[in-house]
Amino acid sequence: MSAEKPKFVVSYAKDAAYVPQGLWSHFEYRNLGIAQATGGRFGAHVIRAKEAREGAFTRHKHTLDFQMIYILKGWFKIESEGEVILVKAGDSIYQPSGVPHVTIACSDDLELIEITSPAEFPTIDVP
């Protein structure tokens, strides 16, 4: 256990900064400070679409211990193992490690929270 005393980490909406990063250039990411607070054991972002999209996504998979997504606004559609999944505001997804998937489309108002463990993890393109 770390000798450093734990402290609250607060990410205020009024100070929110959305920046391009991660896998898709048409998404913007707001870092919630969880990776820094947990030494990288966990990560959390608010991710939002900059525009509606259909197609032009890459099939990929992630290697990590945990990944869940909660939809705040809008919708998106993914395909995994032959199943098409449509998620809308209020829905959540647990995404298992190593399972190939591809986003098919998303709305222009898509906004979601992604929580992962660890904070940083590899993304591997799948043909």
The named CATH superfamily: Jelly Rolls
Quick one: biggest sheet? Answer: 5 strands, antiparallel
The largest sheet has its strands arranged as: 1-2-10-5-8
How far the N terminus sits from the C terminus, by CA atoms, comes to 42 Å
Number of strands: 11
Structural class: mainly beta
Number of domains: 1
Shape: globular
User: Which CATH architecture would you pick?
Assistant: Sandwich
Number of helices: 1
Return the string of H and E elements: EHEEEEEEEEEE
> What would the CATH topology be?
Jelly Rolls
| Low-pLDDT regions | none
CATH class: Mainly Beta
DSSP strand content? 35-45%
Report helical residue fraction.
Answer: under 10%
Mean pLDDT: 91
Rg (C-alpha, Å): 15 Å
Please give a structural write-up.
- The chain is mostly beta strands.
- It has one domain: Jelly Rolls (Sandwich).
- The chain has one helix and eleven strands.
- It has a five-stranded antiparallel β-sheet with strand order 1-2-10-5-8. Strands 3-9-6-7 form a four-stranded antiparallel β-sheet, with no helix packed on it.
- The radius of gyration is 15 Å and the shape is globular.
- The mean pLDDT is 91.
